[in-house]
Amino acid sequence: MLYFIPKPNEALLVSGGLRQRHGTPFRVYIGRGVIVLPLIHKVDRLHIGSRSVRVTVDAQTAQNISLQVEATFVYRVNPDQQSIAEAGSRFLGTTDEEMNRIASDVFSGEVRSLVGARSVEDIICDRDSLNMDVLTATEPKLLAMGLKIDNFQINEISDHNNHINNLSQPELSRVRKLAEVSAAQADAEIEKAQQQAARDKSLYQKETDLQVSSNTMETAKQRARAAQSGPTAEAEALIELTQRRKELAAEEAELREVELIAQVIKPAEAEAKRRTIEAQAEAQAQRLLNEALASHDRIGLDAEIIQVMPEVAKNIASALAESRITMFNGGEGLTQLYSEITALTQHLIGSARNQALSNQDDSQTTADVANALALSETDVNSVDSAEPIGS
Predict the structure, then answer these.
(1) How many CA atoms does the CB half-sphere of 342 hold within 13 Å?
(2) Torsion angle, CA of 105/110/111/113, rounded to 10 degrees?
(3) What angle do CA 211, 215, 218 make, to 5 degrees?
(4) What are phi and psi of 388, to 5 degrees?
(5) Which residues form the Band domain (predicted)?
(6) Angle at the Cα of 383 (from 379 to 368), degrees rounded to 5?
(7) Cα-trace Rg, the chain
């Protein structure tokens, strides 16, 4: 006895013996082993896993337009006892290529039939509907052979007359136009962005150049100022020195003016005052003399002259006291002035005394004259002792 175990994607078909099950020529074992007797039983292995087949179908549509439909379908042996027995009775002993060809023929026939009932537009626009119709039409036929469809998919639909391409041209043109417009807009946006970037770059470069130029000018200006700081300081110092010299010259001119007034004008004014006083004294004496000569004899005139001498001295002193004479040589100048006035007065008194003495022999008259002269000298001395006038 022998013991056989099937693979997971295999079914063991055992034939021979005295009995069969379900009216099939095989006993089917899936997923478990079986004991067989040599010379009595025969064991065959049937692959029940999936098979993939790619087919190309030439078909005409309802518009009599020839199409090529490329599709892929996946099928397998239906994993129940009856289907495996059906598939075994049909495909046992055949190759996989032969089995695939048989299944492809079934699919090709159904595809031709379904394509012939549709227009090209329907086929292109609704492939899923064609897929479902093919599956629905082929499934019973394949099940009769013990097969089951796992998947059916149309991969490509084409034609030799470019009908499909012609149908797509309007859409392609529209899409192409949209693509071109989009590309042009994209190019425009890109160009706009590039130009904006160029403008921004140019603006930034301009601002940078202006800032660099401004910095360069400011640096040059500061350097020029630094270079001219020495000459500028010298010029300012020279201007200031010139101004000080002008001020000094003005002060020196004022000083010279003061000195001129003090040394020339004021002494001249004082001299003029002195001469005026002397002239006034002489005029007063002459007036008195003239009056005496006109109204008295000689002796009486001499007496009157002697008597008025004190009055003359008083007038001189009063005139000096009321005069604002500025003395620039201090006490020495004042002393000199008083000395001259005193000498003048004494000269006048002396002349009067001599004249009176020569014309009068009377002792009483002589005594009166002497008294008058004494009084006159006293008045003159009072003038000589007076305080200096002026500054």
Answers:
(1) 16
(2) 130
(3) 135
(4) -60, 145
(5) 7-188
(6) 10
(7) 83
Q: Across the strands, what pairs with 70?
A: 56, 156
> Which residue intervals of the chain are DSSP H helices?
81-91, 96-116, 120-125, 127-144, 163-260, 266-295, 298-322, 330-359, 363-384
CA of residue 160 relative to chain centroid, distance? 72
Contacts of 56 (CB under 8 A, 6+ apart): 68, 69, 70
pLDDT score, position 338: 60
| Residue environment code for 296-310, b if the CB has 16+ CB neighbours within 10 A, otherwise e | eeeeebbbbbbbbbb
pTM, 2 dp: 0.41
pLDDT of 385 higher than 50: no
pLDDT at 316 exceeding the cut of 80: no
Delimit the domains of the chain by residue range. 49-161, 162-252
Cα gap 11→24, rounded to integer Å: 15
Give Cα 81 distance to the centre of its chain.
92
The mean-pLDDT minimum among 32-41, 131-140, 287-296, 368-377 falls in 368-377
pLDDT of residue 325: 55
Residue 57 pairs in a beta bridge with 69
Q: How far apart are CA 189 and CA 171, in angstroms?
A: 26
Tokens representing residue 28 in the block: 């089917």
CA distance 106 to 55: 11
Give the tens place of pLDDT for each residue, 3-62.
888 888 888 888 776 555 556 677 888 888 888 888 888 888 888 888 889 988 888 888
Give the Å distances, CA to CA, from 192 to 184, 188, 198, 199.
Answer: 12, 6, 10, 10
Structure tokens at 101: 């060809």
Cα separation, 77 vs 9, whole angstroms: 10
Question: Pick from 21, 23, 22, 26: which is nearest to 41 by CA?
Answer: 26
Residue with tokens 């796992």: 150
* Nearest CA among 92, 134, 91 for reference residue 113: 134
